[in-house]
Amino acid sequence: SSADELSEKISQTITDLLDDHQPLEIAATLVTQGLAIYKTILSRPDYESMVDTISESRDQIYTFDPPNIQ
Length: 70
Prior knowledge:
3 helices; mainly alpha
């Protein structure tokens, strides 16, 4: 699917970025950009709901395990 292809591309990009950047730098940048996209395209109530949903599902997030992340 398109979402699977996008996920694979982003995962590969992250793996490539790990050669020159710290994992926390990459994660912070991705989260900031993702939230900016949500805030741009969603209404304020929908954005607030999305952020709440993300926060509430924090225990359901899987770990990202490329071979060189530490």
